[in-house]
């Protein structure tokens, strides 16, 4: 099957939300793109902006099909392939660029990689917008807002937005709800371990935004925390700066206060 035929079938499959079929077709398509020297922009292909734009569109479908298939590793790989295309000033800007790059930033947040998040955000700003201007973009505003809340320890704001079934500009942003909440819970759990020796189960449930005792038990089992008479026990840290512990306790206090307010509303 020719590249044109494969691309046509890919477009139809993507429009029909047949993401697994898209990923299967993309295997053959990428081989042909390599053979035509179109998978990665080069000096020899820079004079053919139309071919490069088509290649970019194909890779964008690959990124979206991957993320909708919950293949986060595949999604990251497609973003890596797309980056050189987005760097090309000779190509007209893609309407999918901000959405895909924002989703990638959100993925970095779920992985807890704040350092790479900032590196990528600064690099994306080189596409013509400052970080302040990116905050006004409907897509970039989402990961930037989440990152600020996480840095400030305002996990409750992230939880509130995700649990309120907020209407995001693209359905793909909803796919990160579980991963982002899990990442936040792990951060809170780490703060708890470094700040407390014991904590009642009910307090732990509220702090971690868990819905029921079954979820609490599962989380405790995953963390390997011992429980006695309804109280969770943590190993006391041997050496930790006092100011760091106080910061952790303040974060936990803020989260617990909000969690109690949410509990009273429910």
From TrEMBL:
It holds the Pfam family CSN8_PSD8_EIF3K. Signal peptide: none annotated. Keywords: Proteasome. The lineage of its organism: Eukaryota, Fungi, Dikarya, Ascomycota, Saccharomycotina. It comes from the Eukaryota. Gene3D superfamilies: 1.25.40.990. Residues 70-250 form the PCI domain. GO terms for cellular component: cytosol; nucleus; proteasome regulatory particle, lid subcomplex. This is PCI domain-containing protein. Belongs to the proteasome subunit S14 family. One of its GO terms (biological process) is proteasome-mediated ubiquitin-dependent protein catabolic process.
